[in-house]
Structure formats: C-alpha cells, structure tokens
Amino acid sequence: MTDIKTVGVVGFGLMGSGIAQVCAEAGHNVIVREVNDAALTKGLGSIEKFLSKGVEKGKMTAEKKAEIMGRLKGTTKLEDLAPCDVVIEAVVENIALKHETFRALDKVCGKDAVFASNTSSLSITEMAACSGRPDRFVGLHFFNPVPLMKLVEVVRGPMTSPDVFEAMCAFGTGIGKTVVRATDKPGFIVNRLLVPYMVDAIRALEQGVGSVPDIDEAMKLGCGYPMGPFTLLDFVGIETTYYIANIMFDEFKEARYAPPTLLKRMVQAGMYGKKSGKGFYDYSTNPPTPTKGLV
Ligand SMILES: NC(=O)c1ccc[n+]([C@@H]2O[C@H](COP(=O)([O-])OP(=O)(O)OC[C@H]3O[C@@H](n4cnc5c(N)ncnc54)[C@H](O)[C@@H]3O)[C@@H](O)[C@H]2O)c1
Hints:
single chain; alpha/beta; Rossmann fold; N-(1-d-carboxylethyl)-l-norvaline Dehydrogenase, domain 2; two-stranded antiparallel ribbon; 11 helices; 10 strands; globular; binds nicotinamide-adenine-dinucleotide
C-alpha cells in the first residue's frame, strides 16, 4: 500500500472530531465531511478547544496548534474526499446511512483508497459488501474521548485483504494508538466482554444484591477498575448500551447479552445517562446522587 497522506473523515460528531484531531496531530492532511456548515463549525470548535487547553497547560506550542488546525479542512461535499488515501466513516449508527455513505464514496474515491468504519456494533462484512471494494475495507473502532483513549480495534472481515489489514494496523500505530486485532463478530473484543459485565451489574441491582453506589464502589475497590459499572453505563449512554446489547443478543441468542428490563425502562423514560442529565445517577446535583425510584 502506498503512503497514507490524506485521510477523509465522514461525520464530525463526538467520534469524528476526535478521529480527525488525532490524524491531523499525526501529520496527515484531513478532510472532514458533514451535512451542514453548523456541524463543521461545531466539530472544528471542539478540536480548537481541546488543543487550546494543551497550549494553556504548556503541553503544546501555539505554533504547533496552528499547524494541526491548518491540516484540517471541512466540507459538505462528499466529492471533496476524492484525494483521500483512507476514509474513516463516523456517521450515526444506522446501517442504511452507512451503506449509502460507502456506495457514494466508492464513486468519488480512487480505487486504491481504503474505507474504514468506526461502527461499534454493525457488521463490517455487510458494509464491505456494498462498498464496491470489499477487500479494501476494515473496521477502525476508536474509543471516546479519542484523543485520550489509547486503544483502537482494527477489525477484519473474511473479504479484507491481509495487506490492507496490516497497512491499517500500521496506520493505527502511526496515529499514536495501541492496536488490537479483531475479527468481525458483534462487539469485537471490548464490547463483547464489557456489555455482559454492564448488563450483569444491572441484573445484580434488580435482584437487590447491592445499591448503585455500593456496586460501583465494590468494583472500583475490589477490582481496581477506574469507575464502577453504573458510572460507566451513564458515561457510555444507557440507550447506546441497550442498542448494542440487543444486537449482540440477536446474533448470539445467549441470555448474558439480553438487555434487562430496567435498562429498557430507562431508555423508554429518556434516562440516557450523563448526556441527558439522568441515568443511574442524577447529574442535576453536585456531586451526582443515585437516581431515586429505579428499583
Ligand atoms: N460515542 C461513542 O462512545 C462511540 C464509540 C465508538 C464508536 N462509536 C461509533 O461512532 C459512530 C459515530 O458516533 P458519535 O458518537 O460520534 O455520533 P454523533 O451523533 O456525535 O456524530 C455523528 C455525526 O454524523 C453526522 N452525519 C450524519 N449523516 C452524515 C452524512 N451523511 N455525512 C456526514 N456526516 C453525517 C451527524 O451530523 C453527526 O455530527 C457511530 O457508528 C458509533 O456507533 C461511538
């Protein structure tokens, strides 16, 4: 594979902005595509804010920040991604939208360009099959917040060329991440193990094993985890966990992936966690307090 100079990112939300930032920091030219100018301004603003903090703390010079920002270009036109050597898709988790995005990208990008999806739960193989280049397609699963989380899961499907897979592992290392290799099974490595743990914690709560803060404290101090399962659930998003657990249960038909009733009820109630202000904890108080009336 030839050198990767220009990276395209489709979607400039939470993940896309972090991915674009780490690619630009690593010296790649980055072209980001969004649906409108407001989304582009928001994405660039979040990178600018992150880098400015680095300058304030003396971790980065103002010149370095300007250099990184100078490598980022936003556009609303997909055709502007034509010069990209790699395109990383980070649009919302919707299979129809992802298919449409890759079909359109195949028409505008060079035949050697590699396509990657940052999906958490959808099939890399299914997307690869409609991308027009199934051998040049991988999963690149980053973690939130991308500039701070060291890991990227590089995912191959049965059609991924071994050369492309290795090149994308090297690309992941080159942008400063620690690469783990995974095959295309729902949840890859991290969510495959994490989702049953989180839903088990909810079942323990439903069965009265302990309270939300006691279960959190137990897993923090007993296992040395940086946060307990309910704090983590609120951070990841209750609806996101519910969505992924359903996909994994559909695939494996194993009870350990099945979303517990409480998880479903919280989604129905709009308690999505930190982002909505209420999940297992209520974030309207400082510090957050356990949400009343869950069980
Ligand atoms: N949030 C996480 O913790 C996390 C972690 C790993 C992977 N992911 C995956 O990353 C992807 C993005 O998630 P997110 O949390 O950044 O979502 P987000 O909602 O913050 O961002 C998605 C962005 O995509 C844009 N978009 C929608 N259609 C588009 C199109 N056709 N072209 C360009 N942009 C378009 C939206 O305007 C939005 O800004 C999803 O597949 C998700 O599963 C998320």
